[in-house]
Amino acid sequence: MAKITLENLAHSYLPNPATEQDFALKELNHDWADGEAYALLGASGCGKSTLLNIISGLLIPSQGRVLFDGRDVTTLPTADRNIAQVFQFPVVYDTMSVRDNLAFPLKNRGVDAAEIQRRVQKVAEMIGMEDQLGRKARGLTADAKQKISLGRGMVREDVNALLFDEPLTVIDPHMKWELRTQLKKLHTDFGHTMIYVTHDQTEALTFADKVVVMHDGRVVQIGTPQELFERPAHTFVGYFIGSPGMNLFDAQIDGTRARIGEATIDLGAHYTATGRTQIGVRPEFIQLSSGGAGIPARVSRIEDVGRHKIVRLDVAGNEVSMIAGEGEAIPADADRITFAPDGINIYADDWRVAPQGEGAI
Amino acid sequence: MADVATPVVAGDGDMTIEKPRRAARRYRPSGSAIVMALYLLFLMLPIYWLLNMSLKTNNEILGSFSLWPRDLTLANYAKILTDASWYMGYVNSLIYVVMNTAISLAVALPAAYAFSRYSFMGDKHLFFWLLTNRMAPPAVFALPFFQLYSSIGLFDTHIAVALAHCLFNVPLAVWILEGFMRGVPKEIDETAYIDGYSFPAFFVKIFTPLIASGIGVAAFFCFMFSWVELLLSRTLTSVDAKPIAATMTRTVGAAGVDWGVLAAAGVLTILPGALVIYFVRNYIAKGFALGRV
Amino acid sequence: MNKTVNQKAWFLILPVLILVAFSAVIPLMTVVNYSVQDTFGNNQFFWAGLDWFRDMLHSDRMWNALSRQLMFSGIILAIEIPLGIYVALNMPKSGFWSSFCLVLMSLPLLIPWNVVGTIWQIFGRVDIGLLGYTLDALGIDYNYTQNSFHAWVTVIVMDVWHWTSLVALLAFAGLRSIPDAYYQAAKIDQASRWAVFRYIELPKMAGVLMIAILLRFMDSFMIYTEPFVVTGGGPGNATTFLSIDLVKMALGQFDLGPAAAFSLMYFLVILVISWVFYTVMTTLDKREGN
């Protein structure tokens, strides 16, 4: 187990990157604390697998350093970093039995037979394959194979870190939940440093202590699930996390007040923002009212998703979503929306502006 | 840059964009380049020697030993390209090879389709029986072919050789095409029929383009095996359709062997193959897997 | 893919059937016909029963040719298959050099077989051939027309030169179908180079290697032109393989009856051995799966 430090790290797949656009991974400094479970969340192609492969040593970064507990491992091959990685697609050794598959990483490291036996048994129980240890891996279903891959990742107990590259893509939904719970339990039991790459926010938020959100080759926010929800540091985090995502309104910010179209709203704190300024409000923090203060809006559609209702509104031609309780009545004459002051975030050129008096995030 | 090595999953660009290719290559031992260089040297030396000889005069070939032509001459080539009895050999060979490729593909396409889509009485036995023809030694067939084609008046014609080569090319073409056709989902056929296509229209307009690479591979192999075969083509021809490979024996005359011309003729037989390879170079690796990887 | 039952599919097969019937069945019937008849010339034939088969089974000539043939096929398979795999493992995976190697390696496959023979015949001559001249200069008394061992070595090296690339190209196609993740996982598992080959590359190549072995077996068992051009079957009968012997008998000596009986047995041997190869390999494959 180790603390992983990234120093001025950046990577480009081009031989001579010139502009920032050429970098698949833009410059980054970050510590991955020892024993913590991280999720690396982002849309496809945002650079998260690149980052993971740099940490695992499958890729050598174009610049910067990777440190494990202060030791420079940037150019060290994968085998010498003592990490385990599970890939998106199951990788099993077809001609070996399930047992030999699980024992393979240990055998290659010269662990003695009794110890191998013990650990393989334990991992097999964890992935629920004790009764299939004797059979050949070929011909197993995709999720059984992926369980073996996970098992091979977990069988070594002394790893510096466990890396997962969207490991549950091929697993069917109910197994997904079960395996994720297993991984979570494994983390509490052994306290490995874990990095879990995914594009599924639910997976990320339920698995990790801290979520690292990436967008366009850049880490845009690192925080607990709650922080990501309440104080998205970037508009991307706002709409990527949450369902539906955060609503954004173009607005002029003037101290404690803001203008959206004709309406003026009270922000409850003092902001100084320049550039393209926007107000972000999550659907959970919007209320409907009729007449009086607020922004003019028209209800266009109501979707009942069971636990709550999603109200789609038309605000000056843009679609805005809000969430109403399941039992809450939607008044027929509603024509205004107002924001709960706690739920207001101000953005300038897509980055969040902290109000005066708020501690830095 | 080929993406064959990367599994592609719809809707996820990650794999193609981010996966490092370098990593896999680092596995290759550093001696790879040396191994390949030695192997290619082994392959090229005999061919180079033939080329070398074809550019020398007979005096130089027999009189002195040199690694490259000291007295460079194109006379050997000139002799072949100006003498009809020489160059007609090439024309004859090309005629029957092209005929054979066309016939093989024309009959193999519908058959391969039937094998890949339908099950019918005796289909497996029939398929296996077809393949056994690929295992038939041409030497076994040389004499009966000679008698058969003589009796129906086709001896010494291009079509006779083209038909004879069908013996091993048709089974091969059926087999290769069947492999490629199996990879095309059946739903495509069904959709086309629902859209009102007749079978021939569907086959020509929709299906053929889908297996174009398979047809290319099959054509390549038909060309190759017909071009390199000599025993049957020599047995079935005497003058009018005589292949170049057989013409080469002419270089043995009363005055001994005309080595320079022999070598030049040999080099010229390598050229069509080299040309074909050059055009299909990007499909070779896939083609050799015969659609079965 | 589950196939629909459709007896009309026979119509699609019909062209192939007609063509193959013409170019395979009729000639084969002619052979069968000759194999059970004898002649005193003048195109007068009479029934000879299975005499020719009995004669051939007792003829040393055929058994010698058969054992030479088996030895030849065995040796070239033992060299070409491992060498082909080794070359495939060392080939550049992509880019210019990959195409470069593919093109050069395919070249010998498209040279007419008698030209292959001619190339090696010249290459091995001590007076004008690079190989022969070099060996001679090194003090080796190399002579493939007089020394049967030298003749064998020459014919085998020629076949390796001619066909190893086919095996290599097939194996290479198999290798390219392996996703990168397998190599990455193997690295993380600290697998040795040998383990990567044994547990990842070899299983993935198994299918194409089966094709390679079958093709190489069949074609080497039918080989005629190349050794005939180089050695003419000699010295003596040292390199007289089955096809060479058959052509000598049928077209040279015009012994139609024995040649026909020989042909049928020859064909049968290929079929049986190919079938055995195929069955053994598919059962091994299935057993691996359980």
Q: Which features would summarize this protein structure in a list?
A:
heterotrimer; A: 361 residues; alpha+beta; 6-stranded mixed beta sheet; 4-stranded antiparallel beta sheet; 8 helices; 22 strands; B: mainly alpha; MetI-like fold; two-stranded antiparallel ribbon
Structural overview:
The complex is a heterotrimer of chains A (361), B (293) and C (290). Chain A has 361 residues and is of the alpha+beta class. Chain A has helices at 48-56, 98-108, 113-126, 142-154, 173-190, 201-207, 225-230, 235-240, and strands spanning 4-11, 25-32, 37-41, 63-68, 71-72, 83-86, 161-165, 193-198, 210-215, 218-223, 247-250, 252-260, 263-271, 277-281, 286-289, 295-296, 298-304, 308-315, 318-325, 336-339, 344-348, 351-353. Chain B starts with 13 loop residues before the first helix and ends in a 5-residue tail after the last helix. By secondary structure, chain B is mainly α. Chain B folds into 2 domains: 28-73, no CATH class; 83-290, MetI-like fold. Helices cover 70% and strands 2% of the residues of chain B. Chain B has helices spanning 14-18, 22-25, 32-54, 58-63, 75-82, 84-117, 123-134, 138-151, 158-182, 186-194, 199-210, 212-228, 231-235, 244-247, 259-279, 284-288; strands at residues 118-119, 252-253, 256-257. Chain C is mainly alpha-helical. Chain C starts with a strand and ends with a helix. The chains are: A alpha+beta (361), B mainly alpha (293), C mainly alpha (290).
Strand-helix topology:
The complex is a heterotrimer of chains A (361), B (293) and C (290).
Chain A (H helix, E strand, L loop, with lengths): L3 E8 L13 E8 L4 E5 L6 H9 L6 E6 L2 E2 L10 E4 L11 H11 L4 H14 L15 H13 L6 E5 L7 H18 L2 E6 L2 H7 L2 E6 L2 E6 L1 H6 L4 H6 L6 E4 L1 E9 L2 E9 L5 E5 L4 E4 L5 E2 L1 E7 L3 E8 L2 E8 L10 E4 L4 E5 L2 E3 L8
Parallel strand pairs in A: 3-8, 3-9, 6-7, 7-8
Antiparallel strand pairs in A: 1-2, 1-4, 4-5, 9-10, 11-14, 12-13, 14-21, 15-20, 16-20, 17-18, 18-19, 21-22
Chain B lengths: L13 H5 L3 H4 L6 H23 L3 H6 L11 H8 L1 H34 E2 L3 H12 L3 H14 L6 H25 L3 H9 L4 H12 L1 H17 L2 H5 L8 H4 L4 E2 L2 E2 L1 H21 L4 H5 L5
Helix pairs in contact in B: 3-15, 5-6, 5-15, 6-9, 6-12, 7-9, 9-12, 10-11
Chain C lengths: L3 E2 L3 H27 L1 E3 L5 E3 L3 H7 L2 H31 L5 H11 L6 H12 L5 H8 L10 H29 L3 H9 L4 H29 L3 H7 L10 H11 L3 H34 L1
Antiparallel strand pairs in C: 2-3
